[in-house]
Structures are given as structure tokens and as C-alpha cells.
């Protein structure tokens, strides 16, 4: 296994920082009120619009993905309307938590963790509540490994032109098609430590013209998360406050790499890694937790009688960091990441460590079967 060197992060973010990004971030730091930095701002914003397939506007903000979600709520959710979010996992539930923190009346469409959301159920909820002004969705639910039927869910919301549609695309953008404009998404969030393989701390939102048109006034209180001010400033190559310069440098290098792969290439690479992870899990005799599994992370059920937290620790002892389950899933699943800088080779490494750890904890299966199955998928590409 990976006995020399630091542990390999094979989890759904943060993922290992790619070498190109490390180099860019280690370069001497430019001052941010200079033409050099303005060029980086312009390039990052343009590349983000390409990645998110959004003609409108992209704004990067200091903060993690949650900050991006909060910025969308604070800027585009009408405090006098009803906010609806679609549940199904820890991250989906965060939308409702943010709305409640801002005192916005909210309603969550309940979705059992591990299941995919049903567009018909969302349609029924929206029909019953004409006072809904904003809907928030999660494309890929990282806590369960589920990919939701995002096109159909967006289409349900888009039957109404007066509703703002916000989407958490943090582990979906770049992993699978999620064309913001074509799906009518008004606010789409991404975060630096996932597909970009940049350390955590920078997030970005794509904003549609409709979002600006429907922006409530007076809206919710906000200061450093005021997206109008930030967007106006970034249009000039500046930021409203001191930017996280190093992370912008990293994002610039990351986006250059993603551009080089192309959207189709990115989607194909993630689809292959997802297939390898699922095949490997099955070969170890582990069930897949997600009803409809995504290609960013694979959640595998921990076998009956095995302590899931001990399993994650045993894998870590082999130099590989995978994730356990969160909240109610603690100890019940393990999650292998395969997005961003992670490749099929990482999936093979994680499954190898997982197989050995399962054997150590008494699970009677060939410890090499998972890595072999994943490796075969990688070789057949
Ligand atoms: C990682 C992630 C987030 C954001 O988490 P932060 O820790 O704030 O970056 C939100 N939604 C999903 C689906 C995620 O995977």
C-alpha cells in the first residue's frame, strides 16, 4: 500500500491538490490590485462560466461551498416568500438550515437518505404552494452517493418563471452534465476542494439574468456576501475585499487543466472511475448505498457485524483516507471519492486497502477482489 509519504486522500473532498495547482500556489504572490491579478480574475471567471455552462455571470468568493450556498440564499431568496428545498442527505438539508438561520419561511421535501428525489413529488408540493419564491436542489448528494434526476427536477421548477432555482453542484459540476443555462438554473454553486483539486477556501456561483431580475428588494441582510457588489467589482478584474490570492492562483491553474480535458473528457473520466468503484465494491461483497449512484463518490454498505468506524481507521492505517458515513449513516457506510484529481488508480488503491482491512476485521472475502475488479474496468477503457 501507500506506506511511504503522506496518506492519500481518496475521499469526496478535499481531494489531493494536483501538482499544477501546487506549483501555481507556490509561486510568488502577486498584489491583487495589479493588471497581473486582474487577468487571473478575468480568466477564472470566464473558465468558470465555461465549466458551469452558464452565459450569465460567475463570481468567486472566499469561503467554502457552504459560503456559496449562503450567498445565494442571502442575495436571491425573498424573505417574504416560501423557500423550498429537496432533502435526501446532509448537504441537501443544509439549504433548509441556511434559510432558517436567515429567518426565511421554509419547507423541505422529505427524501429518504439513499433514495433519489421524485420530480412528481416536487411538482405536487409546488402546486400546493403558489407562494413559493425559491427552490434549492442538490445535484449530487455527497453524503449518500446519490445522483438526483436533476434535469427533471429543474424542469418542474422551470414551469414557473417567477421562482428562483438554486442548485448545489459542488460534486456534480465537471463530473456529469449539468448545463446551468439549459436547465434554467439561476444560481449554481461549486467549491474549490472538489473537482478543482484546490485546497478548501474558495467557492464560486454562476448567476443567471433571471436571478438578478427577480432579486427581492428589500432582501435579506448581507454585507461581505453581497453578490451585486462583488460581481460589479469582479467585472473590473478586482474583488470587493482582499481576495484569497493563493487560491485564485490555484483555481486558475486548475481551470486550465480542466479546459484541456474538455467537458466530455471530464464526464467520461468520472463515469469510468464511478464504474470501477462500484464494480470493486460489489467484488468485495459490499452493497451500494445509493439507489441511483453518482460518479463522484461511491457509498458502500458496511457488512453486518463489522464496525464501520474501525474499518475507516484500518484503511487509514494503510495510508489511505476514505470517508465514513455522516450523521445517521455513521458506521453504516464507507465512501470512496473519485472526483477531481482522483483517478481509477486511486480507486484501485482504496479498494485494495479496504479489502485488506475487511479481511483483518473478519469479513470472509478475497481481499484483492475489489482492487482486481476495479483495475479490470480501468484497463478496459
Ligand atoms: C463538499 C460539499 C458541500 C460544501 O461543503 P463545504 O465544507 O462548505 O465546502 C456542499 N454540498 C455538497 C454536495 C458537497 O459535497
CATH first level of the largest domain: which class? Alpha Beta
**First and last CA, distance:** 24 Å
Helix and strand run: EHHEHEHEHEEEHEHEEHHHHEHEEEHH
- Binned strand content: 15-25%
Major sheet summary line? 7 strands, mixed
Radius of gyration: 21 Å
- Looking at the structure, the CATH topology of the largest domain is Aspartate Aminotransferase, domain 2
**Bound small-molecule species:** pyridoxal-5'-phosphate
Strand order of the largest sheet: 2-10-9-8-5-3-4
On the 0-100 scale, what is the average pLDDT?
97
Given the structure, what is the number of helices? 14
Indicate the overall shape: globular
Q: Please name the CATH architecture of the largest domain.
A: 3-Layer(aba) Sandwich
Total domain units:
2
Description:
By secondary structure, this protein is of the alpha/beta class. The protein has two domains: 125 residues, Aspartate Aminotransferase, domain 1, CATH 3.90.1150; 230 residues, Type I PLP-dependent aspartate aminotransferase-like (Major domain) (Aspartate Aminotransferase, domain 2, 3-Layer(aba) Sandwich), CATH 3.40.640. Helices cover 42% and strands 15% of the residues. It has 14 helices and 14 strands. The strands form four sheets. It has a seven-stranded mixed β-sheet, with helices on both faces. The model has no long low-confidence stretch (mean pLDDT 97). The chain binds pyridoxal-5'-phosphate. Pyridoxal-5'-phosphate (PLP) binds next to helix 3. The site of pyridoxal-5'-phosphate has 12 residues, from helix 3.
Amino acid at each position: 500500500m501507500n506506506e511511504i509519504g503522506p496518506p492519500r486522500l481518496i475521499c469526496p473532498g478535499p481531494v489531493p491538490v494536483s501538482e499544477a495547482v501546487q506549483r501555481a500556489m507556490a509561486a510568488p504572490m502577486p498584489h491583487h490590485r495589479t493588471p497581473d491579478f486582474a487577468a487571473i480574475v478575468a480568466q477564472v471567471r470566464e473558465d468558470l462560466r465555461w465549466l458551469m455552462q452558464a452565459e450569465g455571470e460567475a463570481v468567486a468568493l472566499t469561503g467554502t461551498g457552504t459560503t456559496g450556498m449562503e450567498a445565494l440564499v442571502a442575495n436571491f431568496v425573498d424573505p417574504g416568500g416560501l423557500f423550498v428545498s429537496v432533502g435526501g442527505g446532509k448537504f441537501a438539508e443544509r439549504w433548509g438550515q441556511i434559510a432558517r438561520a436567515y429567518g426565511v419561511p421554509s419547507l423541505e421535501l422529505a427524501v429518504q437518505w439513499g433514495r433519489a428525489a421524485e420530480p412528481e413529488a416536487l411538482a405536487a408540493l409546488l402546486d400546493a404552494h403558489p407562494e413559493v419564491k425559491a427552490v434549492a436542489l442538490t445535484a449530487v448528494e455527497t453524503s449518500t452517493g446519490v445522483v438526483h434526476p436533476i434535469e427533471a427536477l429543474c424542469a418542474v421548477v422551470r414551469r414557473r418563471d417567477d421562482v428562483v432555482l438554486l442548485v448545489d453542484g459542488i460534486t456534480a459540476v465537471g463530473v456529469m452534465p449539468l448545463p446551468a443555462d439549459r436547465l434554467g438554473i439561476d444560481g449554481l454553486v461549486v467549491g474549490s476542494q472538489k473537482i478543482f483539486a484546490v485546497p478548501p477556501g474558495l467557492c464560486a456561483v454562476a448567476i443567471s439574468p433571471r436571478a438578478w431580475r427577480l432579486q427581492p428588494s428589500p432582501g435579506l441582510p448581507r454585507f461581505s456576501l453581497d453578490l451585486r457588489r462583488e460581481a460589479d467589482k469582479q467585472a473590473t478584474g478586482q474583488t470587493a475585499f482582499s481576495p484569497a490570492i493563493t487560491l485564485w492562483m490555484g483555481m486558475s491553474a486548475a481551470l486550465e487543466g480542466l479546459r484541456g480535458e474538455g467537458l466530455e473528457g471530464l464526464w467520461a473520466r468520472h463515469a469510468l472511475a464511478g464504474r470501477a468503484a462500484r464494480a470493486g465494491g460489489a467484488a468485495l461483497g459490499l452493497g451500494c448505498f445509493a439507489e441511483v449512484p453518482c460518479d463522484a463518490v461511491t457509498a458502500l454498505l458496511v457488512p453486518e457485524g463489522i464496525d464501520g468506524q474501525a474499518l475507516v481507521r484500518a484503511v487509514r492505517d494503510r495510508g489511505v483516507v476514505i470517508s465514513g458515513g455522516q450523521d445517521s449513516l455513521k458506521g453504516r457506510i464507507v465512501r470512496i471519492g473519485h472526483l477531481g484529481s482522483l483517478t481509477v488508480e486511486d480507486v484501485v488503491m482504496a479498494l485494495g486497502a479496504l479489502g485488506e482491512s475487511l479481511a483483518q476485521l473478519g469479513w470472509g472475502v478475497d481481499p484483492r477482489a475489489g482492487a482486481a475488479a476495479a483495475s479490470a474496468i480501468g484497463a478496459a477503457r
